[in-house]
Amino acid sequence: MRVVLAGTGSAVGKTTIATGIMKALSGRGVQPFKVGPDYIDPSYHTMATGNTSRNLDSFFMTEAQIREAFTRAMKLSGSRMGIIEGVRGLYEGISPIGDTGSTASVAKALDAPVVLIINSRSLVKSAAAMVLGFRSLDREVKIEGVILNQVKNRRHYLKTRRAVEELTGTAVIGGIPRSSELEVEQRHLGLVPAVERDTIAAQIEKWGLAMEEYIDLEALQDIMSSAGKIRGERQPLWQRGNRKRVRIGVAIDEAFNFYYQENIEALEDNAASVVPFSPIHDEELPDVDAVYIGGGYPEIFAAELESNTSMRKSIQRFHADGRPIFGECGGLMYLMSSIDEREMCGVFPHPAEMTGRVQGLSYVIAEAVMDNLITEAGDKFRGHEFHYSRVLGASGGKFAFRVLRGRGIVDSLDGITSGSSLASYIHIHAASCPQFAANFTRNAWEF
Predict the structure, then answer these.
(1) Which of 40, 66, 267, 329 is catalytic?
(2) Which of 31, 50, 401, 419 lies in the 20 to 30 Å Cα band around 111?
């Protein structure tokens, strides 16, 4: 059983509705998914269902890998239903006419039915026109239902439902009223991560109750049940290349929590024991062979990170001893000399600063120009960058990656190196850089 919950565009209420539906059905076994390179929406899904949300992305993955990622996650969680929240509008991708990176591409790879979410504020008959347009653009995309959001009142809902059903032949399975309780706080990278909000669980409960009240969940399950067996080839997500046991310290706390679950599992599949630690709360690094510091919001917690002097010194000693550290985006910032003049680890002698506008927002294609912690010279890989910060004075640094698509740190270069340490603005997924875990664990053992 599977379904894609897609929007006609951004800001139509996909995350609130998708998370609420996941919560409402969580007792029946839901494995959540998110289309695209997103860390924050999945944190809501995970809290709603108790199962770790996974990302599906046709820029990172082949169709065969999308099928592998979906079926693998369903098996690991033992869930009956796979619910996939889309990204932006149903057909939005990296090209104005192509499929790559779109929600539609994932729906087609999985042969999954689609329920279209429409912001129906001030719409009645025009909502039917939107459904007809979305259905006719690509006949391989199976739009089997519609959810109307921002409904003014019951009369508005009934009129709009009649227009859509009679003029398009597509079932309307619910209408969500306008309500401030069905909104969620935003910040510069998107939604506030669930890990930061003690109250988010209560919000998700409200969303779940609202979906139970306003959506025909039995009709939704009928749509999910209409999906047949997933057909087509499947392809491994990552390489296996290390059998030597290593311990990898992974930074996980309020400041650092942007990790694709598959990255962690790829490390474990390459003989790594993952040891979590907190740069905010722990006094020093655990006994590990290498360190992985992912993305997050270190700028929000810069004061706490600066005040934990013993941890910063522990990381400095680890680097000075020649042991490997890999930092991604927020991790890169933490490894710099400072963030907005607050002292950080100093693995790299460059300050990072936040700016008032986005500095990098793109799918990335990069090529390794030298052997490094996670790739070898000549390797090409894909990733994603989204940051408002920049690194100052790095133009003279030693870089491992040439950025072929995207921005990087400076001058289309990324992956700054120092000793055995590597830091990059590029977020990678195990499927987009399948050699990542094998190389990282092997290098951790060798160093």
Answers:
(1) 329
(2) 50
